[in-house]
């Protein structure tokens, strides 16, 4: 391991009714479910706009979808991800809440039990700690405890992991926290295509979905195909994407870690090393089969994540590789690149040493190739 020093339901029943809500007919369109968009006729949109458009389209498609959270309405969201939704859907479906995560999260879970499809925004997943009981015990376990009688179709979304200059209490990566929980699906998009397709999938899913975004990526623009911009484009939860093909070593990551891995792959290419980059997209369920297939080809594996090194996502992937037939194909020990094993410092120079960089990923990859 190398730690970087990374039905419609009634609003009255849900207790949310304030004024009549105009009925929006469901469009009978079968969703496109592909692991990636085609490469033709691409334009660029930001991750922020991709998330916004996905929520807008799903709210227009299904009147049971509504959004709540701190500053999501009149302020357009702390990161402007919900911009314009209040104007289009009104205050009955885009709801500003008090600063009480336990309260509005519990309300959203109850609304999901009543048949609505809430999108519950946390200004950051660090604040979701205030609502951990509602997420884990109420949303995550009620379907099982009711013998399938009660579903909880809810999306918990917001920025996760490190940002810039927000120090220890606002910088944690909760991927492994939620990834270990049965009853909850966890997704972590990287680019604009991921954001659109996975958000639509999460909203339509009958299960609770933790949707881990990244603050630094919100303003980044990525190419996106005409197909991925269609209203019925949905990516399957539980399927990874080979972001870049290679033959010498496999780099596995999610969210902003994919960006670091792609930059590292370019650095490695300059030295004649062909790196394959896997964008996990989905944390739970985890598409380990795609990782196994890649390791069988490259014979080497490096995992990249921004979370703490102990008991992390990289540890789980490495363990599963060691427990499967992929172990027989390894020509070197598996390697991990993680965040530093300490609370995130506030000082900019120390913060920069606390998370994976392309240079660190490159160094670890070369070590796995015995070229360090």
From TrEMBL:
It catalyses: N(6)-[(R)-lipoyl]-L-lysyl-[protein] + pyruvate + H(+) = N(6)-[(R)-S(8)-acetyldihydrolipoyl]-L-lysyl-[protein] + CO2. Pfam families: Transket_pyr, Transketolase_C. One of its GO terms (molecular function) is metal ion binding. This is Pyruvate dehydrogenase E1 component subunit beta. It is an enzyme of class 1 (oxidoreductase). One of its GO terms (cellular component) is mitochondrion. InterPro entries: PDHB_mito-type, THDP-binding, Transketo_C/PFOR_II, Transketolase-like_Pyr-bd, Transketolase_C. CDD domains: TPP_PYR_E1-PDHc-beta_like. Residues 45-220 form the Transketolase-like pyrimidine-binding domain. Its cofactor is thiamine diphosphate. Keywords: Metal-binding, Mitochondrion, Oxidoreductase, Potassium, Pyruvate, Thiamine pyrophosphate, Transit peptide. It is found in: Mitochondrion. Its EC number is 1.2.4.1. NCBIfam families: PRK09212.1 (NF006667), PRK11892.1 (NF008854). The pyruvate dehydrogenase complex catalyzes the overall conversion of pyruvate to acetyl-CoA and CO2. The keyword Aminoacyl-tRNA synthetase does not apply. It comes from Malassezia yamatoensis.
